[in-house]
Amino acid sequence: MEPTLKLWYNAPATRWLEALPLGNGRIGAMVFGGVAAEHYQLNELTLWAGEPHNYDNPAALAALPAIRAAIFAGDFKTAQDLVTKDCLGIPVGQMPYQTFGDLHIELIGTGDVTDYRRELDLETAISKVTYCCKGVSYTRESFISYPDQVLVIRLTADKPGQISAAAYFDSPLGTTSDKANGSQQNSSPLSDGGAGESANRGRSRGNELGNSGVGSSATISVAGQSAKGVDGVLHGFGIVKAVAEGGAVRGEGNRVLVQQADAVTLLVSLGTSYKSYKDVSGDAEAIARQHLAQASQKDYSSLSKAHLADYRRLFDRVQLSLGGGHSELPTNQRINNFENGSDPQLAALHFQYGRYLLISCSRPGGQPATLQGIWNDSLTPPWDSKYTININTEMNYWIAESSGLSECHDPLFEMVAGIADTGRHTAKSHYNAGGWVCHHNTDVWRGTAPLDWYGSGMWPMGGAWLCTHMWQRYLFTGDKAGLAKHYPHMKGAAQFFLETLVPEPTHNWLVTCPSLSPEHDHHRDQTLCAGPTMDMQILRDLFDACASASEILDVDPEFRDKVKATRARLAPMQIGAQGQLQEWLQDWDADAPEQRHRHVSHLYGLYPSNQITAATPDLFAAARRTLELRGDEGTGWSLAWKMNFWARLLDGDHAFKLLTFALRPAEGSHEGGGVFPNLFDAHPPFQIDGNFGFAAGIVEMLMQSQIGSLHLLPALPSAWPTGYVRGLRARGGLVVDIEWDGGKLKMASIMPSRSGPLTVRFGDQTKSYELKPGERITVRA
Fold first, then answer.
1. CB of 83 closer than 8 Å to CB of 514
2. Within 13 Å, how many C-alpha atoms sit on residue 131's CB side?
3. Under a CB-based contact definition with an 8 Å cutoff, are residues 95 and 229 in contact?
């Protein structure tokens, strides 16, 4: 029997981490599935605190020579004091992504129910609640349409006249004048605990209810110190329209009432005044009303068909079965029972959930996925729910190309274009350099200065790492026009380092300084350094990508030569006294106070890069030794990264061990990681990068293409002796189907989009083929 791709439960959600997510890349909703009262917590991905803002610190440039001198002299305390005093952004923290508020639906006339079920169907992106009450069967369906840009809620019953409900908004946002009905709302209190705590509930008119609010100013706490944020200026407007079949609809105060209808469709539209990181002049109400007006021209069937056609065009590209029986238990019980891989299809479900979440929170024309994707119920979420680009944002997009969701990568590239713009100012004001730079965090305002504190913020590689995604897009797709569009940003990132790398005094290697190995002390309370291993690995990838792109596009030969010459002088990877890959220029690893730190940044060269492979046996062995020393503990995203590391080391059973840790219940786990009842990944708290990193790890276990050949089942764990995957994408423009049995390849089908030679590896066999576009190749053991 084919696995059913549904998350389902036999009780309503009682808290946010049990609710089920819907999204269309711009609008997000968490569905609780209540009976007497349904609750949709709402988000719009451009609703952030703050306003267009330059975070750069004008004192930074003058302090730079002294900081570098202190680092090279080993006086890290002085360097850190100078960074804290003169280099961190103004303000020191960025702005948070914020909740839009909540839509509540009170169901009138309910009582005790039987046969309750709530589910999220990943194949349709539709949430459904069903139950029986007083001899009537009720159904509630919800989805958020990308074509029509509205949340659609459909309430039906199997007997006429049974739908009576009241709908109203609730938001913690400060309120503004509601132009729709001429009322002036009182300013509501801001809360840090999520939506549903204020009196901002809007006003109704006929069968519509409008609600407006303004993003808050923010007091940000960083490293135990508070810093006042810039004022909030973004306006949001939400509107719900009820379309009843039979019965009656009317507005009453802050509610829309439906009485004795046969069925009702609620259309929910949201808008904000955000137009770009430097323009907030949009008309939030006009945007919301325009989408509502267009969606109102369609009936429920037409809305549903358009949604399904759009969503399934993306989701259906990949199918996965990992063998074993299909569990009929509710998803939360499957998580509790998951042990030693006894439910392999739960891993397959979690893989497809990662793809579902990326489709739902990152679509062309929108913002990229935040630390929580698009789902956040707070005004002050953990880590501001922004873009942490020293691993987390990159991990969000590891599955974009390989799992057939290339379009979902586009918002990330648009963000890079924005930080390339703002980052030019930071490069000049902080370093007196050309090109552009972005440090370890950015936000909707595209801040690029060092932020938070010296121990994480003084890392100049975030923008460079993001640029490697542009090169990966080309490797997977061969899209030369896309490469030409992205190349100027790649070139600008490289130009910054051509002008800012400095020679270290012992070997005259070119290194970054100041920098750090993300969030990890090399000695107690000492993080700043010169030339950490990860920086050098990222720069090799960036420089190689720029040189190759300039050749493909036939541009910038002098720049290409300079990039190659500079690359040759970068500090090399080194193996330390413990047999490990060194994290820093000096062999400080044994002195690091956290031997099992969650970040393993210096293994970037193993994954996602391809600088450490079986073809570099000494480094390959050192990478393995590094992981053995670090251990298998970790937060959610850290476990996911380690899954990918072990897959690249071709050790499927160890990768699977990390997979079982990633799928354990988050509550009650002292080691960190795991998943919540709704399969959201736990840092803890919820952080979505682990969901995406988990899915990427499964791809790496089943297929790898990073070294110019196609490796089938490179890290297949013994727990998955039979199975199949269809539709994976490999570098070189390949679509790959794989079927295996008895732990060995049974057959594979490869559809190329380009011509040329291909080497395929599986087991101990290697086969060579000559590809022709559109001609399928079948590989058999």
1. yes
2. 22
3. yes
**Beta bridge pairs of residue 258:** 165, 249
Residue with tokens 């451009």, as numbered in its chain: 46
Closest by Cα among 600, 691, 683, 687 to 649: 600
Say if pTM beats, i.e. exceeds, 0.70: yes
Amino acid in the structure at residue 551? E
Nearest to 488 by CA among 550, 441, 530, 540: 550
Element of type H or E holding 536: helix 533-553
> Do residues 375 and 671 make contact, with C-beta atoms less than 8 angstroms apart?
no
Which of 5-28 are b and which e, b meaning 16 or more Cβ less than 10 Å from the residue's Cβ? bebbbeebbeebbbbbbbbbbbbb
CA within 13 Å, CB half, 588: 23
**Cα–Cα distance between 127 and 561 in angstroms, integer?**
55
pLDDT greater than 50 at residue 524: yes
pLDDT tens string 649-700? 999 999 999 999 999 999 865 567 899 999 999 988 999 999 999 999 999 9
The DSSP letter of residue 632 is: S
Give the C-alpha distances (Å, rounded to integers) separating 549 from 258, 387, 456, 565.
60, 27, 31, 16
Helix axis angle, 533-553 to 557-567, nearest 10°: 160
Contact of 674 with 661, CB cutoff 8 Å: yes
Give the H or E element holding residue 308.
helix 300-315
Per-residue model confidence (pLDDT) at position 690 = 97
133 to 116, 136, 158, 162, 239: CA distances (angstroms):
10, 5, 11, 11, 30
